[in-house]
Design brief:
This protein has six helices and six strands. Strands 3-4-6-5 form a four-stranded antiparallel sheet. 35% of the residues lie in helices and 9% in strands. The longest helix is centred in the N-terminal third of the chain and has 16 residues, at 14-29. It has one domain (6-189): Muramoyl-pentapeptide Carboxypeptidase, domain 2, CATH 3.30.1380. Bound molecules: zinc ion (ZN). The site of zinc ion has 5 residues, from strand 4.
C-alpha cells in the first residue's frame, strides 16, 4: 500500500495511510498487530450493499425487507449495520475497519489488547473511534469498536459535509426517499463522537 494507498484492493488517502503506518509500527512494538480489513468504499459499492438489503436479496435481522412497506422502517433496520450510499464515512478515504467486525472480539484476549491500545494511543496518531457507546446520547449507528477515523482530515470533511450536502444530494439508489424522513444527515452523519 503506497502512493494512492492501495494493497489487496484497499484504498485510503495517502495522509491517512501514512498515519496508520506510524500507528501500526508503534503498536507492533508493544505486541499489538493492527490489520485493516476494510477501508474506502465508493458510492457504487455502498449502493450494492444497501440495495441487496433494501430489495430483500440479503436478510436484515432475519427479515426480508420487501415485506415491510414503510420506507422509514426499512431504512432504520438497514442503518443498524450499514450506511446509506453517500452518507458513509468510508467514502472519504479517512476511515477504516480494523481487525474484526465484531464488538465481542474486542472484549477479551487479543481483541481487548488491541482495543485498549487504540483507545490509549490512537489519538497520538490522529485516530478516533466515531461510533462509541450510545449511553451518553450519541445518535446514529451502534457502537463499532473496529471503526477508526483519521481526524485531521475527517474532521474537516465532516464540517464540509454539514455545510454543503443536502437531502437533494442523497439520490441514485433504491430507498433514497427514506433519507430525509430518517434525518440521516443529522442522526447518522453528525452522530459521531469525533468532531475535531
Ligand atoms: Zn467502518
Amino acid at each position: 500500500m503506497h502512493s494512492g494507498g492501495s494493497a489487496r484492493g484497499k484504498y485510503l488517502r495517502n495522509e491517512t495511510y501514512e498515519a496508520f503506518i506510524k500507528m501500526s509500527a508503534a503498536a507492533e512494538k508493544e505486541g499489538v498487530k493492527l490489520t485493516i480489513i476494510s477501508a474506502t468504499r465508493n458510492f457504487d459499492s455502498q449502493k450494492a450493499i444497501w440495495e441487496d438489503k433494501w430489495e430483500g436479496r440479503r436478510m436484515v435481522e432475519g427479515i426480508n425487507l420487501t415485506t415491510i412497506s414503510d420506507p422509514k422502517e426499512r431504512a432504520r433496520l438497514i442503518l443498524l449495520y450499514s450506511s446509506m450510499p453517500s452518507t458513509s464515512r468510508h467514502h472519504w478515504g479517512t476511515d477504516m475497519d480494523l481487525n474484526s467486525l465484531d464488538n465481542d472480539y474486542f472484549g477479551s484476549g487479543e481483541g481487548l489488547k488491541i482495543y485498549s491500545w487504540l483507545t490509549a494511543h490512537g489519538a497520538e496518531y490522529g485516530f478516533c473511534q466515531p461510533y462509541t457507546s450510545k449511553v451518553n446520547g450519541r445518535t446514529g449507528y451502534e457502537e463499532e469498536k473496529w471503526h477508526w477515523s483519521y481526524l485531521p482530515l475527517s474532521g474537516v470533511f465532516l464540517e464540509q459535509y454539514k455545510n454543503e450536502v443536502t437531502y437533494n444530494d442523497i439520490i441514485g439508489f433504491a430507498g433514497s426517499e427514506a433519507a430525509k424522513p430518517m434525518t440521516v444527515i443529522k442522526k447518522y452523519v453528525e452522530g459521531v463522537a469525533c468532531n475535531k
